[in-house]
Request: fold
Amino acid sequence: MKITCFISLLLCSFFACAQITSKQLLVNSGYAVDTNSLWTKADLERQKLYRFNPHQKVDIGYNKDAAVWCRFTIQNTDPSQSARTWLCFNNNHIDSLTLFDGGTTQTIGDRTAMKSPFIEALAFELNLQPGEEKVVWVRAKKETSFLDFSYSLENQIDLETKSSQKIALTSFFIGMVFLLLMINGILFLLTKNRLYIYYIGYSLLTVFYVAITTNFAKHVLFPQFRFFSEGRLYLGGLWYIALSIFLSHFLRLKENQPAKYRIVVGLNSINLMLILVTIVLLVFYKHFDFRYFFMLAYFMLLASIVTIFWAALVYLKIERTKAVYVLLAFLPQLIWSACLILKTFKVIPESLGGNWLLFISLYEVFLFGYVLSKNYIEIFLKNSALMEQVILEKESSLKTINEVQLRERRNIANIIHDKVGSKIAHIIHLFDMKNARLAKETIGELAEDIRDISHKILPKALDDGALFASLQSQITSLNAGLSDWKIELFGYDFPEKIEEPWIYDMYLIALEIISNAIKHGQPSLITIEFYQYTSYYHFQFIDDGLGFDVQQTSKGFGLENIEKRINYYKGNFEISSVKNEGTIIQVSIPVGKS
Reply:
């Protein structure tokens, strides 16, 4: 990218400096403005001509149906050799440029079917015999727009060299842009991200605008087309609208800077309306004065550019990398556009040349194409790493779940074996001994054991919504088996029965938190508090155990699984702990409809 920009700057400097005028020729020139385009050749002899020299800019400002007549007196000072030169005009976007050389007439320009032999300039070939002095007239016509031009005498080799370089550079630019468009089109199909569509639309308009501005469209692609003057104006406006839309979404102005986003949208809407209105007027009212429309459109475009540049500066505080990309890409554009607008209103004498636009557009499209492709690659790599992590977590979760299931099954098997199995064997033995009374008593004890086992696995009262009572019963059983620890449960405005889908999960979560506290915290007291508020339920678990450093200790599978279950119910899970000061776990779940 750096090498490309460096070569481009060198070529730009070459284009600017390689202007050679033959010393064999002397030229004397003057011009007059025909405000209504009514003069004939006979009228020209009575007109006062204003003198101007080669490379001197003639600027008549806003032009409406006027023509500029230029008189050139060219003398071949060599008495022994004939001279061949090209009379060149630097403005490729004159509607029609007509040469009157004796009885010969030639016409070229945007509004004609004829093109210049060279892409670099509108040029006419002149041949002078040894010592000959020739007078030629040139009529420049641009119907409705700002008109300026300068002239020079050039030799054919220089013109062919510069034209070949310009065609090659423009073709390279268009080819590279279409390659980027193909890549970003594929990325859009993969990601469905609209930002790629905005980039594609903006880049296509960039290609069209550059092709017209550099005269590539007229000289190489569509020489018979006659409306490039209007196309250049309208495509320029649409190009800036597309650029501002792309940059607005690139900087996410709608979310981060809504006021500036509304300004940009408003300015773009006005510019789009101006384009539509002027097209209608151009078709039905060709003699309408478009001067103030042009001024308003230029002002709106400049305001949009400044707003986005301002937004990029503010965005430095939000996402520095993106803002720097926009500033690096948009600063040359801002300078070129400001110079063009200021020069149009004659605030400054000159603007940057047309080649600047080519290099700025090439640099800008390449930069954003690189940024979007780079962002996709980074996101793809991050997603790949995330998927690997998810797979590992799933494998770990499945392993842990299998271990938990195996442990619970082993516990249930031990309970059944120790209590149920031994008593069934004892009952059979009693029946064999003909002791029905004792066997009946043992069967009653067995039924009680089975109810106790069922209650430990999942209390029947939970089916009726008795979360608090079910947990209270389980805690009573736990406290009976503890000697050094105690568990307390309190309810504050907490209902006896609730109809919520999460009560089973909350029951198991409470038991898991108690188990974790006893296993890892070694507390003397565990306090559990249940609250009911208007819009949510709140559960608090406090222990006075060992505690831990929350920042340096991972939650582990148990707590992460609890948090995921709470998040599933749109709840909130918070844990705070200090070493040797215990742990507090808080759970909030919004009130829902069963």
